[in-house]
Write a structure and sequence with these properties.
This protein is an alpha+beta fold and about 280 residues long. It folds into two domains: about 140 residues, no CATH class; about 90 residues, no CATH class. The chain contains eight helices and 14 strands. A hairpin with a 2-residue loop joins strand 8 and strand 9. This is Septum formation-related domain-containing protein.
Length: about 280
């Protein structure tokens, strides 16, 4: 996740001026008493704020969908044995130094680094194949420190796994996701289904444990690069999806099938594949 890209934040330049000095007050004096001076103590420097500790792999959080797709998260972890919606699959260090210059935590380079690392980390954490992950409702999401924490020295990024229960709803998780797609039970539990055919107006992706009428059964992979155009990506899935639907149909001579090809917007976000669908 990150289906939804993080919303870029505006970099604020934080500056602090440290000053250390003495102030003095002259006491009243008379002609027959010596002049006295009372010195005030020196001002003390406020210690710099300590950055929060880096997150830990395997930690769980109870986030809403809106919180899960935000660029940062300051929520405290919860017990994984209780209801939660996200699970940390990886924690890494931000590479923000280029030619000796420190980049902002919300710079394009940093965001690109994390957006590449976290989907890869998710695949390793949940197990199974890339195709099985794409046919599931498990998605990656990621977070970087806030601007204030970054200025205090925080330089980590956090990759989480979420399970979509609908278009903008997260599933409530009762168990961990580590290695879950490496088992037939896990693949079935988190499989992707649809409320209607993929070209229907009321189509919505849901977990197959929810009410549904179609199931995602295969993927059509394209070579990464420039978007081929809707005509080509649409035609590319016809044979593969038709064959895949025939394989799962009760009657291989009479059956329905569907194909959901990537739009240019999805392609630009990294989705260079389509999905085949069949009634379920």
């Amino acid at each position: 996740m990150r289906t939804t890209p993080h919303t870029p934040t505006t970099r604020r330049l934080l500056s602090a001026a440290l000053a250390l000095g003495l102030s003095a007050a002259l006491a009243a004096c008379s002609s027959d008493e010596p002049e006295t001076r009372e010195e005030k103590p020196a001002a003390t420097q406020t210690p710099a704020a300590e950055p929060p500790a880096a997150p830990k792999v395997g930690a769980c959080y109870s986030l809403t969908y809106e919180e899960a797709i935000a660029a940062t998260s300051e929520s405290a972890p919860v017990a994984c044995t209780k209801g939660h919606t996200t699970e940390t699959v990886a924690v890494g260090s931000i590479d923000a130094v280029v030619d000796g210059h420190l980049l902002a935590v919300d710079s394009d380079r940093v965001r690109a680094q994390v957006a590449t690392a976290c989907p890869q980390a998710l695949k390793s954490y949940v197990g199974g194949s890339v195709e099985q992950l794409r046919l599931s409702m498990i998605r990656p999401t990621w977070y970087t420190p806030t601007l204030e924490d970054s200025d205090a020295g925080a330089a980590w990024y956090r990759c989480d796994a979420v399970v979509l229960a609908g278009t903008s709803t997260l599933a409530d998780l009762k168990a961990g996701l580590k290695g879950v797609l490496g088992t037939s039970k896990g693949r079935k539990q988190y499989a992707m289904c649809g409320t209607a055919a993929p070209d229907a107006k009321n189509f919505e992706r849901v977990l197959c444990s929810a009410k549904h009428s179609w199931r995602a059964i295969d993927v059509v992979v394209f070579e990464e690069g420039r978007y081929p155009g809707e005509k080509k990506v649409r035609a590319a899935g016809r044979t593969k999806c038709e064959d895949a639907a025939a394989d799962v149909a009760e009657d291989p001579l009479t059956f329905e099938w569907g194909y959901e090809w990537p739009t240019k917007e999805q392609w630009d976000m990294g989705q260079a594949f389509g999905r085949c669908w069949a009634p379920d």
